Amino acid sequence: MRATHRRAGRSRRSSLALALLLFFGGVIFVGPLVVGLAHLTRFPFGIALFNSLVIAISFTALSTVSAALAGYAFARSRVRWKNVLFLFVLSTLMVPWIVTMIPQYVLFYRLHLINTPWPWVLWGIQGTPLQIFLFRQFYATFPRELEDAAAIDGSGRLRIFFDIFVPNSKPVIAIAAVWAFILVWGDYLTQDLFYLIDRNGTLLTRITGLLDGGVAGGGLSTLPLALYALPPVIFFVLVQRYITQTVVTSTGIKG
Amino acid sequence: MVGRRGRRDRKETAAFCAFVSPWFVGFVLFSALPLAVSLVMSMSTFDLYGLRHFHWVGITHYRLALEDPETRSALEDTAIFTAIFVPAGLALQIGLALLVNTGGRLRGFFCALFYLPAVVPAVVSILLIWRVGIAGPGGVFDRVYHLFAPHRNVDWLAGQGRLVLILYMLWSTAGLGMIVFLAGLRNVSRELQEAAVVDGATPSQILRTITLPLLTPVIFLQLILGLIAAAQMMIQPILFGSTFGGGGSPFFNTPARGANILPAHVFHVTFIDAWPGSGAAISWLLFLMILAVTVVLFATSRFWVFYSGETKG
């Protein structure tokens, strides 16, 4: 009895020590990142890079989560009018960018959100129609028995989603996330419109600003633009095997 | 029993609403509401950069847009571009998918290879790769052309703007379509194809009578998505534009003759001419045209789209 007590005490102490170690280790490893990011603001394009990273990361993360939830609901819910609502999701594909962009600009202008990353956060919360479509198609192929078994165990919809669907959908999550990143990273017009007045802008608007004389002469001003294409290419190479897995070579459950 | 089922239905509906609500709120705020506002905008004039001096003008913008020769020529460019790009794109995507599908172990590699152009941002691939190395003086087009006509020069960007734009769009969109078709090919039954081979069918017969009919649902999907994409691309013709005018930014280029498709024209009218009301009217016309074509395609789809599930029942 006393032995177990002592062991429990020791283990509690050691786990505390471990937690402290981890915490300080984390500070040591993450601290430079934070300091480095703060230092970014001193580089000529530092704030622009920071802005680009913020909008790309927040849009990618939020839109993937939101689209996964919506796609799951559209694929698995037993609600009668869900297909009507899904038509609205697809119909937003047809709306030209420029039709909604100026009213949205006015909306964000009135809310004082121009020159901030907030529009991208809000768009991210909405998710994009293609991502929702992707998740819906993928989740529609899951066998119903899995879900029913979990429902009998008393799991709610959200529990089922996180316990069964999310762990089995890594490829499609990766594809949707990289797709969102590529979308926002290369979208010059929106960034230009919503960071127009900001001296710092985003990395893309600053880099293309260097090209004032045109690119035919080549020269150093084109180098940053070439480097700008690297992150999406790298992310694509990283998830490339997921695309081939789900689309080309996989012989899993058919729809 | 009924009560319990009713409660479960209500819970199910509540869960559905909760999951869809982030999208729905965004849909109302960033799609439905702006659409309504832009409809109002298209019927009024105002100062774009100050957002004041609103005047109601009714359908004047629409009438002027349909009479304006520039808008008419943009409409014509859009029609020609779409009529060439969409069918050519579909053929290219199906061809690539069939080709890659025979690739055996290297399928994954070729799949990634053909998709790569879609990953590079248009700003980079047009300004750095296509304007300079491919369509520029001494670029790939020039070299190939000089093999056939050594002493003649063509200004590809200015003179053949439409051709360059179509080739660029084919190059940058083929990969995604190919992946969709590869996924579709997985559902084409192997047994049918093998049975046809046993019966002595040639590869082209199999393609025509088995593979393509079974692919029609995917072809339909890609046709609609391709039309929508073709009618919405805006930055590409601007970046290919032939003059670095205005503020020096490549984003204020004027598209080459023949490549001035409607969205680029709307961009010019809205931001450079600063007539947002007129721009909104033209983009609403564009939206209505996309909608009409989509509806017509959906209506005719039952005559040529073959869903294998229907026969199985």
Total number of distinct structural domains of chain B: 2
Task: Write down the CATH class of the largest domain in chain A.
Answer: Mainly Alpha
Largest interface chains and counts: A-B, 74 and 74 residues
Unreliable spans of chain B are: none
Number of strands of chain B: 2
As a whole number of angstroms, the C-alpha radius of gyration of chain A is 23 Å
Mean model confidence by pLDDT of chain B = 84
Shape label of chain A: globular
Terminal CA distance of chain A reads 58 Å
Which second-level CATH architecture of the largest domain in chain B applies? Orthogonal Bundle
Give structural attributes:
heterodimer; A: 255 residues; mainly alpha; MetI-like fold; 2 domains; 13 helices; disordered C terminus; B: 313 residues; 14 helices
Please explain how this structure is put together:
The complex is a heterodimer of chains A (255) and B (313). Chain A has 255 residues and is an all-alpha fold. Chain A is 74% helix and 0% strand. Chain A has two domains: 1-40; 45-249, MetI-like fold (Orthogonal Bundle). Chain A starts with a helix and ends in a 6-residue tail after the last helix. The model of chain A is unreliable at 249-255 (pLDDT under 50). Chain B is mainly alpha-helical and 313 residues long. Chain B has 14 helices and two strands. Chain B has helices at 2-41, 60-67, 69-101, 107-119, 122-134, 140-148, 156-159, 161-186, 190-198, 203-232, 235-239, 262-272, 276-304, 308-312; strands spanning 44-47, 52-56. The longest helix of chain B is centred in the N-terminal third of the chain and has 40 residues, at 2-41. Chain B is globular and about 75 Å long. Classes of the chains: A mainly alpha (255), B mainly alpha (313). At the A-B interface, helix 2, helix 3, helix 4, helix 5 and helix 10 of A face helix 1, helix 4, helix 5, helix 8 and helix 10 of B.
